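Let us work through a complete example step by step.
Step 1: write down the sequence.
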Amino acid sequence: MELPPDMYNVIIGLSILVGAVQCFFGYRIFKIILGLTGFLLGAALGGAIGYSIWPQEVAALAAGLVGGIIGAAVLVALYFFGVFLIGAFLGGVLGQVFFAVAESNPQPAVMLIVAVIVGVVALFFQKFMIIVSTGFGGAWIVVVGIAYFTTGAIDLTNLERMYRSGGSLTYAMLLCWIALGIIGVIVQYKSAPTEVKKARPSSAPDREKHTALPSAGER
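Step 2: predict the structure and record it as tokens.
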């Protein structure tokens, strides 16, 4: 299934924006990230199906919009599935990085196993894995998307070109991904304690009431 070129570029452009938000604010607005991710996945799938049935851009856009709305609703409603999916995406990225460094074609079975393992780990260590997965996963989306528009050497429908090419482009992308991912994780961890601090004052009045009651009884 294929997408019309214009819609393909729009989805990649939106993916860069969503990836940047996901990289730096993934934990704090995780449900919004799930909605945006579900919308992009649903839009791509729906648009491809619509375009295969009726090869017109109008049909692809309409089907993509419907698929995006459905995808967003599903991921937001199925929260734990969304957590698993975000973790699995990081596993897929790690698999891609491994094969890119090895300059060999990706093995779907290996990548699937790694994705499932990381997805399951994300369910058990949600806070940590949400931050790491959104930080590095979002960074990968940004780096690949920018490379797609700026270098012309990235074909997301044929990733074997990137794995076989090796050279400076591959290693430059990996270094940018690692750097941006680390920055994203640090930013998210810096902002996470703020939520904890905001939750503490709600218990303060209760402690004051408990300490005040005995003194009132003594009088």
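Step 3: interpret the result. Residues 195-219 have pLDDT under 50 and may be disordered.
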